[in-house]
């Protein structure tokens, strides 16, 4: 996947200040405040920076942590994982492979058979509602 070559100036124009802080400066939104934390609609979560499909609503679960949590990405090729040693911790950072935007972190404490919890900032996502019913 070819990476989007936007300059930081272009990103600042495209994103809201909160999106820029999270996607480009690796910030984190406060727990229990994100617009998708309680979203239960069917659809696809995409990168707010570039529109790449990241997570399907069928993989979302309530982790009780205050951020949207997923047990797997929609397509592993759209996600990049990197070791993160910030704040005196060792974590796995989750990035959008296409634009390099910071999405959140991956933890191996999920309750589903994958054992994974992709803990993602709502602000780094856009949601496209599905028109298909459950039936």
Task: Provide structural commentary.
With 135 residues, the protein is mainly beta. It has one domain (8-129): Peptide methionine sulfoxide reductase (Metal Binding Protein, Guanine Nucleotide Exchange Factor, Chain A), CATH 2.170.150.20. The chain has 2 helices and 9 strands; from the N terminus they run H-H-E-E-E-E-E-E-E-E-E. It has helices at residues 8-14, 17-23, and strands spanning 43-47, 53-56, 60-61, 69-70, 79-84, 91-96, 102-107, 117-120, 125-129. It has a 6-stranded antiparallel β-sheet with strand order 3-4-8-7-6-5, with no helix packed on it. Strands 2-1-9 form a 3-stranded antiparallel β-sheet, with no helix packed on it. Strand 3 and strand 4 form a beta hairpin. The longest helix has 7 residues, at 8-14. 32% of the residues are buried.
Unreliably modeled segments: none
- Characterize the main sheet: 6 strands, antiparallel
Determine the structural class based on helices, strands and strand pairing.
mainly beta
Provide the domain count: 1
Q: Report the CATH C-level class.
A: Mainly Beta
What fold name stands as the CATH topology? Metal Binding Protein, Guanine Nucleotide Exchange Factor, Chain A
Number of strands: 9
Beta-strand percentage?
25-35%
Question: Spatial order of the strands in the main sheet?
Answer: 3-4-8-7-6-5
CATH level-4 homologous superfamily:
Peptide methionine sulfoxide reductase
Radius of gyration: 14 Å
Overall body shape? globular
| Tally of DSSP helical segments | 2
Which percent bin holds the helix content?
10-25%
What is the H/E order? HHEEEEEEEEE
- On the 0 to 100 scale, the average pLDDT is 94
Intertermini distance: 34 Å
CATH architecture: Beta Complex
């Amino acid at each position: 996947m070819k990476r989007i070559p936007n300059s930081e100036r272009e990103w600042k124009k495209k994103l809201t200040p909160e999106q820029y802080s999270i996607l480009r400066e690796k910030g984190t939104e406060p727990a229990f405040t994100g617009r998708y934390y309680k979203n239960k609609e069917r659809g696809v979560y995409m990168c707010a920076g570039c529109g790449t499909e990241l997570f399907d609503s069928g993989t979302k679960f309530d982790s009780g942590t205050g951020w949207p949590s997923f047990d797997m990405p929609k397509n592993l090729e759209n996600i990049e994982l990197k070791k993160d040693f910030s704040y005196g911790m060792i974590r796995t950072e989750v990035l959008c492979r296409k634009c390099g935007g910071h999405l959140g972190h991956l933890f191996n404490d999920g309750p589903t058979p994958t054992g994974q919890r992709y803990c993602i900032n709502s602000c780094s996502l856009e949601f496209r509602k599905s028109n298909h019913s459950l039936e």
